[in-house]
Amino acid sequence: MCGSGNSAILSPPTSSSDDRPSACCQTATTVSATAFKVRVWDLPTRLFHWTLAALVTGSFVSVKLGNMDWHGRLGYAVLALLLFRLVWGFASGGYSRFAAFVRGPGSIMAYLRGASHGPGHNPLGSLSVLAMLAALLFQASSGLFTNDDIAFEGPLSRYVSGALSSLLTTWHRRNETILIALVVVHVAAIVYYRLRLKQDLIGPMITGDALLSSPHQSSPDNLAMRLRALIIASACAALVAWLITV
């Protein structure tokens, strides 16, 4: 999910009619001159975000088209990605770590009252991230046990009772509505921050960097960190591959 990459957005200077900078212009120029480029999102986190968005979209389209084979394959890939993100939330550095953005009620209330926050997900946005991860994790994992008796049988459905498989199948379908609602809220928040608050949440999730008005430590994004992510992702993919063939 997109994170809040800018703790302060820099406004371009404007000039007065007599070409002399106004006080507002001078302030903006001063801020621009002291902008700090900070690596907010490491490459593994960015690849996770956009790959997950593509896979979830493909999974949604495939089930609407009745192509359950591809729906299943995409669901397995989503599950592997989510497992990676759970591990990466502890194994990564910087603002991708859960410890960097998971906050308690006090921080959330302070943010709603106007308190500032550093780079990364803001306290309110962290709730959206956690809700999205939880809903997607349930959707992907429950799909392993679903059985519609017609076009699809989850690879682990034979290990549970028919009643439990039927229950999980029902909630797998119902959870689709919850996921759609979360996606709508997510997109609406991005638009609101862009148009109302003049904060670009998408750019940092593409480039990894944000321009901030004060210095902050960058997230580690070196070769060693990326190799660590590759190892974790491979292990998660292997685990899911084992689960669906056991």
How does this structure look, described?
- By secondary structure, the chain is mainly alpha-helical.
- The protein has helices spanning 23-33, 43-64, 68-91, 98-101, 105-112, 123-142, 162-195, 202-207, 223-243, and strands at 36-39, 209-212.
- A two-stranded antiparallel ribbon has the order 1-2.
- The two termini are 31 Å apart.
Task: Provide keyphrases for this structure.
single chain, 246 residues, mainly alpha, two-stranded antiparallel ribbon, 9 helices, 2 strands, 61% helix
**Physical arrangement of strands within the biggest beta sheet:** 1-2
What would you call the quaternary organization? single chain
Uncertain residue segments: 6-32
Q: Number of helix segments? A: 9
What helical percentage do the residues reach?
55-70%
Question: Would you kindly provide a brief summary of this structure?
Answer:
The protein is mainly alpha-helical and 246 residues long.
Please write out the topology.
Blueprint: H1 23-33, E1 36-39, H2 43-64, H3 68-91, H4 98-101, H5 105-112, H6 123-142, H7 162-195, H8 202-207, E2 209-212, H9 223-243
Antiparallel strand pairs: 1-2
Helix pairs in contact: 2-3, 3-6, 3-9, 6-7
